[in-house]
Design a protein that fits this description.
eight-stranded parallel sheet, 16 helices, TIM Barrel, about 55% helix, alpha/beta, 2 domains
């Protein structure tokens, strides 16, 4: 060695604060399971047994409209559909809704003098399902925005809903139509107060529904500033397909989550939250699978394509607005993960065995490969036996590669 130790020491001294700041700002992926969707249900439509009712309705739609050509409708090979359908049916019977959002914002159309009663009834329904063990794994509420006309109404709704839920419950609060970083900063003490008042654990989601949330007047990417202002409370940025598109002047017929304008916003969302522990979440389609079979198939074809497209782009969660969309949510999601398993398993096995092959994978790619396999396990697309067979490794080892605690 030719360099004296004091050169190394000075380098460490200068960069130690940078290391600390980076780890604080970018702690890495949040441990645990990310839901594949969020189901938005208007507050006045939330009743006890909601998840089971959505699952039954989805199964009924599958029975009425699904066969014999579901594979061609969804763009899946027949052999893959044969693998997926039994799993989808089991999912719809056992856990049809992974994440429920009681919606007291745009989805709620009740008159102002009914909102207190409707949100209290919705909260009581969720509380009953929690007590019965039939609630979805994740629950939350979307109240009105922090803009001046709706600010107090939105916080009041949160106070009412959270006051009914059992102490200790983890609840996601979705803040819509955010435009300014200061709105996020101002909302954090409100969440602290709500936690203290009701004994709950509150997570935060921000909905990206305005151009100002993406790009500020100073030319900076507001999303990144919002994400870091929210800190560890933030679990996701959710793309609002129709509000965002309308704000850009996109004609209604062309408002969709696969529009180029949507892609720009979602690309920036992904970059803004990368490494922070929060995730970027796709939006919805308002083309619902209802009516005669031809209309249902057209809506399913659209939805399945959007789900598959989002998954290919690393957006593992989106919105569902109708029970029959669960058919395509799970079919497209399960097909994606099952199709990914053979190649991912072989590459992980080669990486872990240090075998040279046609693809030279690095640790970051191995982490991503393991992440796809683990997501497939989380949602029920895969089971541990077939993952172990494909990779030659126990799931606990894959979890370590993927940067997760052991399952």
């Amino acid at each position: 060695m030719t360099l004296p130790e004091d050169v190394y020491a000075e380098l460490d001294r200068r960069l130690a604060p940078v290391d600390v700041a980076r780890l604080a700002a970018y702690p890495g992926a949040r441990p645990g399971r990310q839901p594949v969707h969020t189901c938005y249900v208007p507050a006045d439509a939330v009743v006890p047994g909601l998840a089971a009712a959505w699952g039954a309705a989805a199964l009924a739609a599958l029975d009425e409209h699904g066969l014999p050509d579901l594979g061609s409708v969804l763009g899946c090979a027949p052999a893959l559909v044969e693998q997926v359908l039994p799993r989808v049916r089991a999912k719809l019977a056992a856990e049809p809704v992974e994440d429920l959002r009681v919606d007291a914002e745009d989805g709620y159309r009740g008159p102002p003098d009914r909102e207190d009663d409707d949100v209290l009834a919705a909260a009581a329904a969720v509380a009953a399902d929690l007590a019965a063990g039939t609630a979805p794994p994740s629950i939350g509420v979307r109240a009105k925005s922090l803009e001046e006309p709706t600010r107090r109404r939105g916080v009041r709704t949160l106070d009412l809903v959270l006051g009914v839920l059992p102490s200790g419950t983890r609840v996601t609060v979705t803040l819509p139509k955010v435009t300014e970083v200061e709105q996020v900063r101002a909302f954090l003490p409100v969440l602290d107060a709500l936690e203290d008042a009701h004994g709950l654990a509150l997570d935060l989601e921000l909905q990206v529904e305005t151009p100002q949330a993406v790009l500020g007047a100073d030319g900076a990417v507001t999303l990144a500033r919002m994400a870091h202002a929210a800190g560890p409370r933030l679990i996701g940025l959710h793309y609002g397909t129709y509000d965002y598109s309308a704000a850009l002047g996109i004609a209604a017929a062309h408002q969709s989550s696969d529009h180029p304008a949507a892609d720009l916003a979602k690309d920036l969302m992904q970059v803004a939250v990368a490494g922070t522990g929060a995730v970027a979440v796709d939006g919805s389609t308002n083309v619902l699978p209802v009516g005669p079979t031809a209309d249902v198939h057209a809506a399913w074809r659209l939805h399945a394509g959007l789900v598959r497209r989002a998954l290919e782009r690393g957006l593992y969660q989106g919105w569902d607005l109708h029970p029959a969309q669960l058919v395509t949510r799970y079919t497209a999601t399960y097909a994606f993960f099952r199709a990914a398993l053979p190649a991912a398993g072989a590459r992980l096995a080669a990486y872990l065995d240090r075998v040279d092959g046609g693809v030279l994978d690095e640790p970051a790619t191995a982490r991503a490969l393991a992440g796809v396999v683990l997501r497939g396990l989380d949602c029920g697309a895969l089971d541990e036996a077939e993952v172990a067979a494909a990779t030659g490794r126990p799931v606990a080892e894959l979890a370590a590669v993927g940067g997760r605690p052991a399952r």
